[in-house]
Give the backbone structure.
Amino acid sequence: MSTSNTSALNDFLQQCQQRVDERLGTALDAEIASTQLLEAMRYACLGGGKRIRPVLAYGSALAVGGELAAADNAAAAIELIHSYSLVHDDLPAMDDDDLRRGKPTVHKAFDEATAILVGDALQSLAFQIISTDRDTLCANNRLAMVQLLSQKAGATGMVGGQSLDFEAVGEKLNIQQLEQMHSLKTGALIRCAVLLGGMSCESASDSQMTALAAYADNIGLAFQVQDDILDVIGDTSQLGKPQGSDSDKNKPTYVSLLGLDEAKALANSLSDKAIAALQEFPGSADPLRELAAFVVSRFH
Amino acid sequence: MSTSNTSALNDFLQQCQQRVDERLGTALDAEIASTQLLEAMRYACLGGGKRIRPVLAYGSALAVGGELAAADNAAAAIELIHSYSLVHDDLPAMDDDDLRRGKPTVHKAFDEATAILVGDALQSLAFQIISTDRDTLCANNRLAMVQLLSQKAGATGMVGGQSLDFEAVGEKLNIQQLEQMHSLKTGALIRCAVLLGGMSCESASDSQMTALAAYADNIGLAFQVQDDILDVIGDTSQLGKPQGSDSDKNKPTYVSLLGLDEAKALANSLSDKAIAALQEFPGSADPLRELAAFVVSRFH
């Protein structure tokens, strides 16, 4: 990526992060009677995080000719689902992590009961936000977005993948089984973010949505392969969590199955395929193209 | 209540329980790749439970002149939210209960990680079902139902009330604070069930919905007062959980604040008010009327 591309991408990332933080901040300043719950929800969601999923949603909205504002609710909803999953993943009964984004995890900063409730409340809030009225989008589109988010967040998506991941500890998975697990655990929400961004724009055509879906499939898997690579080569200060924490738990990874070099080659190839899927889009899809390169070059 | 009314109510309860069990069974037989997750979700939701919230939704649909089938998705969605909240409530970090409906709780029958994921997946499934296409209901109504369910399930509803409940352990609440907590923790979902049943029927008028809302407010509170009464006078085999388990934890209850007799009088008065709110409805609201009496006469 050239320096000017990097700079344009950085501007875009920052703009998207500000937008989604503002939307989340508004949503988390509402009539929540329990002050402890509100504080912990804000702790879990605000001030940190790469916001990759919101950025993808915004990028898709631009790609199909929409404006950034069109994707505000989709971006916030998908980030809320992601945030809730992190809070629950970190619990002692799950991954038992003390650090997240360099800060104590929610159950460490508050307590376990609060962390459970925070995750539950963030999930509800995601569905509240994505179903909220916005004059420019018809009820049918918004309803389709609720349906997609619920499918990709739950047992047929992210949570299903997390359960497969638990079932796999200590098991020998082959590459197809590993792909199925990741396709649900991480890929489902990444794909969902890309699609929701497009669906946020009434004007998106069927062929545009088909191209976005192909982009989404490849970027979703690339993201997870890169996560596995970072788990091996990253260090704790960059990752915000102890390096090697997945491989320590005897979980199968792309690196353990393919070796580091082949895993890197796979990530790059998936990124290239994602970019190729966008060939019929004009320059409006440049942020998505740059994001595909960014995903496999990121350090954390 | 006369014997014939009791018999009619029993028939209605059974019919509603069968309908919602069938809808839940279909939803929990879908493309869920993790067999352990699917099994645990079915364990948490099927085969047991009074299905009071679904029954209220069905009763409301009938009251406004709709058919039972109209409320199938609303009934299933609200029961999924209720079921997920029980699974998470029972966790060691929350109420730490080993028994639920006379069976081992989900984290006892499976494990804690599974119980956390089951709750998360059931919540997503609720939003999936309530947003699902049904030819007879317009997208605007379904979207309004998603909005209501998300508000009443999350931090501004049930989860917010649970958090207030935790904050209240060992504290001296007055009756207003206790009402606020219960109004969110238990009342929000009960009210939501009544309203969703009405909203499931395109034909429901504004005045019908206003009457249902008044019914819902009173029945919601009556339900919680009766829960507190049962916690004192019930026994373990009837409740399916150890008697006195709430008062043991030094949580304030209506009985501890008002005494047993006054709590019983309050429950009956609320039930009467709920029935009075239905005065403009014809005989189609008889199931709701009988349910109002049933709620304060139930033994578990």
